[in-house]
Amino acid sequence: MVWDGIVAIDLFLAGMGAWTFIFAAFACGRDDAARKAKLAAVAVAVVAVGLGALILAVDARGGMMHPLRFVHLIGNLGSVMAWGVIFISLFLVGAIVCAGMMLAKKQPPRALEIVTAVLGLGVSLYTGVLLGTAPAFPLWSLTALPIAFLVSAAYTGYAAWGLATRVAGGGSAAPSWVSRAALVLPVAEAAALILLLAVVSGTSGSGAAAAAASVANLVSGSQAVVFWGGVVAVGLVAPLALAVLRQRQGDKAPAWYGLAEWVCILVGGFAFRYAVVMAAVPIFL
Amino acid sequence: MLDPTLANGVVTPTAEGINWVPIKPATNGAFYSAIAQILIRDNTFDADAMAFPSHEAALAGGYGGHTNATYLVITDESHPNYRKLMRAADAGLEVPPADPEATTQPTYYVVIDAATGEPALHTTAAKGDLFFEGEVNGVKVRTGFSMLRDSVNERTIDEYAEITGIPASEIERMGKEFGSHGHKVSVQAAAASTASVVGFDTPAGRELLKAMMGTNQMTGGSFPAGQAPVTEGKGACYDLTTIAGKPDVSNKNAVMISRGSKAWEKTDEYKSRVAAGEKDPKPMLPWYTNAPQSDAQAIMSIVNKYPYQCKILMTWMCNVIQATPGAMRDEVIEKLKDTSVLPLHIVCDIVVGEMAQYADYIVPDVTQYESFGLPTVSMIGGFGTTVRWEAKTPETTKLADDRYVCWETFLIDVAKACELPGWGENAIPDVNGTMHPFNDSYDYYLKAVANLAYAVEPVEDITADEAHIQGLDELPKNWKKAVTDEEWPKVLKVLSRGGRYWGMDYKRGADGRFKGLKAKEAYVYNEKRALMTNPYSGKRLSPTLNYNEQMFADLSLMTDHYSADEYPFLCSEHKPKFRSVTMLANSPIMRDIAAHNYIEMNEEDAAELGIKDGDMVRAITPRGDVTEGEAMVRAGQVKGAFAVAFGYGHINYGAQDVEIDGKVTKGDPAIAAGTRIHMMVDPVVAEHGGLGIIADNDASSPGRCGGMFKIEKA
Amino acid sequence: MSEKRLGMLIDLGVCIGCNACTVACKQENEPPLTKFNTWVESWDAETEDGRVTRANLPKLCNHCENPACVSVCPTGASYQAEDGTVQIDQDKCIGCKYCMAACPYGVRYMVEESGDVSKCTFCHHRTTEGLLPACVSTCVTTSRMFGDLNDPDSDISKKLAEAGDKAKGLMEDLGMEPRVYYIGLDETLAAKPVSAVHKGGNVIAPYEGRQ
Q1: Ranges B366-380, B413-427, B681-695: which has the least confidence
Q2: Domain that holds residue B452
Q3: By CA distance, what is B595's nearest residue in C?
Q4: Residues of C in contact with B13 (CB under 8 A)
């Protein structure tokens, strides 16, 4: 085991936070009435991504013991982690500026929001590509994992955004595409999961045994409970069902449907990162 | 490669032409008998080589070794020399006049001269008749070879296959191949997995097969190994063996405490008990008529206070109880601690191991990097000697006279205090008779190095540059004083090379034989064994090679005492890669590379017992001794036996907490990790009131492998 | 060619699995306990013709031509030196372990005390002084050979040329272009494992029985 649950937390927070911002930027209204809710969502995005980066730094033992070494962090622009550092840093700058402006009761410029959202997209993509460029672990397929992490990040971002805005007192009604996202994202995520399992199962050559062992860990081994229970049942089936129910019942739907849906998505999103990190078997013994 | 356990080494997936053939422990006699049977059956053995009755005859025939295969054996039960090889007098043959100058006179044996068909002295016949059975001088006789033919035919190849666990087809293949290369074949067998209560069958069979193909002292055959110039004896510069004024003390009538080299009926105890009216007395511990010294038997004698009490035990760098299977048990340890059993016990060692733990005095010694030695590499058929020298400053206490505490320093000072000759001033003579002092280890070992430097032809002096590069110009002054100024640069040259070796041709004659040919006789008929009787049962063992089942001290079969169905497993021990026999468990690096050893089991045996790789298992003897360890389930282990690497399973050696004057020093349990074989003691010896290990009834060495066990999940 | 490219060739035909290399490396480089810069994996291996043999496979950093560890390292702490070897500048290492996740050979480890990552350096401190790596120097059967792969007259180049197709790197299909070559690797890996795999004397993969 090279990386463990700590890294799963980081991957989860970064993807979720980035997409919380994206939802805030595009699903919240730009009027004053929506500002409080939007600020809450952006604050969640900043805290999540910032906390993720902090956890990553703390987990980097050498850097923590010799903080000056962090100045080398973008010493190799060929490294996905260096991109991640850049994305995360710029994203945090953008998001914090947005938050600051909203605190000052101003609307952030649209261009800034869009740039920050794009950086957020980069952050969420980075989490999958980071693992995907570690060839010792065939489970972390560069073909399939970034897509799966991206979709999952969007889904958790949607949930965190929903929760944040709800807690902050709602605001203007969400646009209709958000309702569709609540149905489309879990289906897309399921498809991405199937793609991941299929691609990894098809690994040939030196990685084949480790790939097969990793898939086995996920579907029937050490991570089976997390995978089927956390990722699939809690993370996909339950929120999808709640979303369907909520949308069918319309205004009559109890308020807890939404809360439960979002909590389930967040639990499932973390479970996914955790299972993928923990189930991965290295090629070496 | 016949071995109960597949070791790391030459049998790899990439190695061609070498196979691992699993063999059950304690069955080597069966394997050798089977091969001998095939060689005789197919007539592929070298009948010429077997028929040379003397060294001279073998030399004349172009060979390097002879055998007693053609010597006649008296088979007439009524003859006073029954079982003995026939002597000239038995046959009524005249012998050459005795040499008045010689201290010992040769023994003349009788053969049927192959050329004449008549009885002749073994010294006069060019070849003897291998197969003769009949009468000579009215005495019923037959050749040892004819008896061998019978003894190796006691069982069929299929039966030998069943006993050894080697398929009959594989035995046939090996037998055919062994007989198809002329004298360019050999057999190597020694140590660990060959040591059992029937361990003597291994050297006996090995030497027989070497002789049957005429391989002894032949290039490409059984070429003598471990040849070296004289270093620690009468060498080119110094005589390190002669002690002027040495007291005239003989050990001729001394009795080894290990009860070897003495027949029970020749002991004073036997005679006095018979004189006191006892009929057929039995000893408390067995006596071994033909056995050499044995540390394992000595320790058992000490704890039994039999045949006499050991009042002072001094051991150097050994851990006999750890190294003797079955000896490291509470009953033995209690006796070692008891000063009424062992009044004084002095140990010299670099570590406090299981033996040292119970010593009265511990003299610190130095490691191999801090001391000297001139070992001859015994497995190499060349000529030369390695020199191990003090490559680092010893870690032990430095004395006022700049010497370090070690075994040699201890011996020298004790000897000097006792005013023994050969130590101190005027102790060591050089070739001119001038005497030199012996006050430290340099005085001895560097003289031995000088002997090596001047052996055959002297080495060149070391150059100043080379001495400087290697730091040899910085050696302490007490080194240089040990040799002359002329010898010193040559001694340094040898030190700089770590020894001296000559080319392989130095000992290989152009005639395909060893250049230093010495008489090399192989026993086909072992007269010493033929005349040996067991002290408990009076039974005898076969004088020619055969298969012996495992026996206890009275030669009764183990399986007559305990059920083979209930205790079907044998065991074997093998050398560990990451420990020595008793040491290195204190090394963090070694423990890091191998935390513990395993109980190595064949995968089919394990499957039958429901044991999985990594399970904790117990191997239990019929007497309740328990060996517990982690199972290593593998194909590389013979079916029907488990194996354990020795050197693990310490109880002391730093593994234990030690309390001295109320102060507790915590031990490191990691040192104790792993297991060792807990062998049963001999139940027959127990019946006679002794605590004895199971042992080889010829050599007295411990029954390290074999035994009887059942295995169960822990 | 003028540029140096150091590499190693291990003849599995003569490796006896004695682990002298492991010990020499431990003494020379002093990796922390439980960590190894080089080690030997050993297991029982049944060949196609039914022989049960003992396979030995020494392992160490492959000093790849195309090292994943170097490309993923965010700080540039892992780099390729002028002699082609892969080295770590500990002063730049933040201990993110990305290189450990990237290296398919599992040769890198975290040094808990300093927080940075370490591995075999091909005894850089020795080779720059004209000495052989400790493991090569101590190898009792000269199974390990070391030298400049770019020098056609070096012993290693000659032996590699002689070995031809018989010399292979580990898991070449992963594209790292390892520069530790093994003679007899195919035969060794083709044999069916019939025991646990031991790293030194410790089990790293228990035996599950014949599948």
Answers
A1: B366-380
A2: 369-398+419-506
A3: C202
A4: 12, 45, 47, 53, 55, 184, 187-188, 190-191
